[in-house]
Amino acid sequence: SEAVSISASRSGLIIREKEPANLEFPFASLTPVTPTNEFFVRTHFPIPAISAKDWTLTVDGEVEQELVLTYDDLLRLPSVTAPVLLECAGNGRAQLVPKAKGLLWDTGAVGTAEWTGVPLSAVLEKAGVKKGAVDVILQGADKGEVDDPKSPGVVHFERSLPLAKAMRPEVFLAYKMNGKDLTPDHGFPVRAIVGGWYGMASVKWLTHVTVTAAPFEGFWQSLEYAYWKRERERPTLTAVTEVQVKAQIARPALSEAVPGGKPYRVFGAAWSGESDVVRVEVSTDGKTWSEATLLGESVPFAWRLWAFQWNVPEATGQYRVMARATDTKGHTQPVKHDSDRRTYMINFAFAVEVEVV
Ligand code: MTE
Ligand code: MO
After folding, report:
1. Which of 24, 33, 77, 79 has the most CB within a 10 Å radius?
2. Name one GO molecular function term (predicted).
3. Ligand nearest to the CA of 44
């Protein structure tokens, strides 16, 4: 299949890389649901052109019965619709010191869209998962050359989930985003949505689901999107999975001019992968923290917007505004990045510098 180029209506996004397409959402434009044409785009290879009528999903490996589903087959199965957050594991990389390699995402490689699709569990139950199965590999149609010492050459984009996660209701095969068919850059015709995990697990242009009897060690989880996990001081490269707790400030934006002597509404979003945010705190002096107001209701796997009234001092000059979130598991954002995480899972609380005028 030939590659499609990104659509023209991209003026709202920051281009981090043109080909393959890597586009960032300007986080200052935060709204409860991110519109599709403002949703960040992360690709590793050219976007594959797939027509819905030619698309099939093969379900194989450790199953009682192999399945080949068409697009119409999938649409006939009971569907769910839910807002789910996607955050790239490298979101915030531009904040790292020293300067990191890789795409230098600022704070906009994150979004919450409303996705519609079929729970992966329904498809796996139809195929009948054999006893002893451990992983479920999700493979996309896109492929290209990677620098993998174990298997050099051309690979597909693919990622596995442990069977237990694959069976969870927040994991589904999505064919709609914000009420419309997926766009080519977000995975048309069908992509995985893996609620609670960083974006790399939400495989786009999904064509193969393979159940395995042994843990999968693909490139995209053992070399890329992997971090150093220490067990008894021995570091092992381990797949990146759950989204870490984080609050991000949308307003004020970096270098924004804030009027002195008036209240200012600090505004942002907070999230935590498989947990819920219970508290967001804001600091405007680098020493004291005050609780922000959480807006709306808590929705599992989506972000929560928050606001804080900052009574801006009269004194002009540079101020540093910070936010930090805490989740139901009691996790709070760290003060600095742990280098064992390499350039992933970046959730330390950093300051937005603004100018009081
Ligand atoms: N799926 C395929 N097939 N190819 C990819 O390059 N990128 C992943 C994931 N799914 C990718 C993919 C990464 S790293 C992220 S963060 C999300 O898609 C981004 O989804 P989006 O482009 O819809 O925002
Ligand atoms: Mo990503």
Report:
1. 24
2. molybdopterin cofactor binding
3. 1
